[in-house]
Amino acid sequence: MKRLRRYLDSILDQFRFERVLLFGSRARGVSGEASDFDLAFFIRDYSYWRAHDLGVHLLLASRGFGLDIEPHIYPVEALTDDSHLFVQQEILPHAVVLYPESAAA
User: Fold this and answer.
1) Is 70 part of a structural domain of the chain?
2) Is residue 105 assigned to a domain?
């Protein structure tokens, strides 16, 4: 988790996120050695192309830390909007808040 924290610190210096959550097997505590880090990044002013470009940057940045991450970019509204079923049903129930550290999932 130290490498993940260093990675997050480096990208938080470059990009603005409303919330970053760890989800999937690592958040549920059932990960294996080959498990990746599923990270949900919530942003304002969401667009498909902005999310795509940001995801590429986040993925490339992770390589410098020896991490296998799977970045998922969502609009910040997905945190409270029931129409975002995957976020509401699969991410939020078991998520670990990585940023901001004082926030609840």
Assistant:
1) yes
2) no
Report helix, strand or coil for 98: strand
Number of domain units in the chain? 1
The mean per-residue pLDDT over the stretch 44-67 comes to 95
In three-state secondary structure terms, 17 is coil
pLDDT of residue 51: 96
* Average pLDDT over every residue of 60-79: 95
Which tens digit of pLDDT belongs to each residue from 11-43? 998 999 999 999 999 999 999 888 999 999 999
Cα separation, 4 vs 6, in Å, equals 5
- Written as one letter, the residue type at 88 is Q
The range of the structural domain enclosing residue 88 comes to: 2-99
Q: Considering the domain boundaries, does residue 104 fall inside one?
A: no
pLDDT-wise least confident of 15-19, 30-34, 46-50, 85-89: 30-34
Q: DSSP for 23-92, please give it.
A: ESHHHHT---TT--EEEEEEESS--HHHHHHHHHHHHHHHHTTT--EEEEEEEGGGGT-TT-HIIIIIIG
